Structures are given as structure tokens and as C-alpha cells.
Amino acid sequence: MKVDAGLIAANLAEVPARARELEAAGFDGCVSAEIASDPFFPLLLAAEHTQKLELMTSIAVAFARSPMTLANLGHDLNAFSQGRFILGLGSQIAPHITKRFSMPWSHPAARMRELIQAMRAIWACWYAGEKLAFRGEFYTHTLMTPMFTPTNTQYGAPKVLLAAVGPLMTEVAGEVADGMIVHAFTTARYLHEVTLPALERGLARAGRSRRDFQLACPVFVVTGRDAREWEQNRAGVCKQIAFYGSTPAYRGVLEAHGWGELQSELNAMSKRGEWDAMGTRITDEILEQFAIVAQPHEVPAQLRKRYGDSIDRVLATFAFAEDEQRRKSLAELRAG
Q1: pLDDT of residue 277
Q2: Which among 52, 126, 164, 226 is most buried, taking Cβ atoms within 10 Å?
Q3: Rounded distance, CA 213 to CA 93, Å?
Q4: What is the tens place of the pLDDT at every residue in 172-212?
């Protein structure tokens, strides 16, 4: 199991030191998310200041960009990092795409399948010299001249991981992506009863094997060195779970446990701006399904127990562990 850490920095000037720190600590990869800033710029700096660290967007919003834009970004970062870049994509939800990015939204699973196929057609033009002649329902790419064709193609295309929650998008990941990013808002039951069967259907449809597919999973962790840190961490995780739980598209995860009505309640609270109060609706029973709740030295064993037979890489920063304990934790997760 590979172990990634978040490339968390208040501004871009802090990224080089953070990336070097993660590489020196022994993490396999660093992850940049599209939240309050661009997800690609930090990884460019991380690539410049590291040698082995894998660099992944988790996620970049696919529908905020065209396949050509993503193909260029993916190529440039993979070439500059000498093959270390992983393009993690996600769909976001309709209000963000239409109201925040002012981009079209329709049939997200079908659109995502076609977006990745179009991107691969562009890369095939650049790397294999194939004629660019992609015509789909949502995207059309038929023009590529030598001036716009990259020449530094020795590292090829980056791996593409697709974030998914529902069965349809999960099937798309199995069909056309190199891997999948399981949403942090998941549980072991949902993973095994919904996600993995849908993934197998997608892989089978494309005639592919799970052995050639990478499953990545960010995991909520509640831990702490003392009562204050523990409670502070617990409150933050509960708020994050509640935030995701308010999203109608994620209702199925709660329904798998018989908690579907909680989604309606959280959604109504979010519309009233009751963000802090939403976290109080997450009971200990719910928390323990969504998060690893353990002392710092117990976290790796709990992660392996819950997900060790299913996922290939995990996002876990061990924020409360000392350097020696963090080293042991990383070694334990990679074992087996």
C-alpha cells in the first residue's frame, strides 16, 4: 500500500519546503486539491524540488476544463516531473459547475467517459502520431498542427485516476481510467457492497483486470496526543462528514446504513448556513463508520484492517505522530 500526504500550504511560497519534507519523511506521493486555489501550480513546484515523490491532483475539476486543456496540463506536468504526475479528476456537482465555473452540466457519467476518451485521443496524436479525429456527443477534437504538438514526449501520458461515489461514475472509472479515487465520504460497507462491484462491472466491460488498476482512498482519521487534540480533531472530522453528507449525490452512502433521512436534515441545515451545528448531528456510531478512531500508534493497524484488502494507496498524514512513530506507521502500512 502506498501512502500519500496532502500538499497543504498557505501559499505557493511554502510548497517547496513542504514537498521536500514529505519526501524526506518517506511518503510515496503528495496530493493537491482544487479547493481555494489551483491544484496544478503546487505540483509544478513540488516536482521541481523533489526527485521521487509522486504528484497527484485529488481532485482537479474535470468539467471546469476542456479535454485539450487537461491534456496539455497533464502532459506538461508529467514531462517536467519525469513521469511522476498522476492526473486525478472529479466531476464536482451541478451547482458548482454551472454557477461557480459557468460551464455546461449534463449526463455526468457519460460526459466523464467521453472527456477521458477525448483526452486519450489527444495524447495518442501527440505520442503515437495518430490523426486527431475525435467526435463525440459532448466533445469534438479534430485539429492539431505541428506548432501545437509537444516534442518532449519521452515520458508519455500521465496516469488518470477518476474520483467516484455513485455506481455509474465508478463503472466509468473501471472502463476508461487507470485508477479510481474513492471519496473520503465512504464506509467499508459501501466500499464492498456498492463501489467494488460497480468497479468490477466497469473493468469487465472494458476487458480489463483489477491487477492493472489502482484504487486510492483518502481516509478520515480521529486521533490525538491528548484530550484537547482528540476533541479538536473529532469536531473537525464530524463537520467534514456532515458537509459531505448534506450533498444529495452522496445520499446513497448514508442509505446503505439506514441513515438516508440524515442527508435531508443536513441539506436543510446547509441551506440555512448552520455549518458548525451540522457536525453535532454526526453521532459516535456514524463517525466510527466513516473514520478511523484510534490512538496515533493504532492508526496503521486499523487502516490495514479496514481497507488493506481493497485499496492500493491511502491518503493519511499522521498529523499527531512524532517522527519515529510516523516512520513506523509508514512501514506498517506498506507491509504485506
Answers
A1: 96
A2: 164
A3: 25
A4: 999 999 999 999 999 999 999 999 999 999 999 999 999 98
**2 strand-pairing partners:** 313
Superfamily (CATH) of domain 2-220+296-334: Luciferase-like domain (3.20.20.30)
Say whether pTM exceeds 0.70: yes
Q: Nearest-CA neighbor of 78 among 67, 70, 66? A: 70
Q: How far apart are CA 67 and CA 171, in angstroms?
A: 20
Domain with CATH 3.20.20.30 in the chain: 2-220+296-334
- Residues constituting the chain: 336
pLDDT tens, 32-91?
999 999 999 999 999 999 999 999 999 999 999 999 999 999 999 999 999 999 999 999
Asked if residue 226 lies in contact with residue 234, where contact means CB atoms within 8 angstroms, the answer is: no
Contact in structure between 223 and 230 (CB atoms under 8 Å) = yes
Long-range pairs of 252-261 with CB within 8 A, sequence gap ≥ 24: 252/165, 252/166, 252/190, 252/194, 253/165, 253/185, 253/186, 253/187, 253/190, 256/187, 256/189, 256/190, 256/193, 256/194, 257/187, 257/189, 257/286, 257/289, 259/286
Among 229, 336, 319, 225, residue whose Cα is nearest residue 27: 319
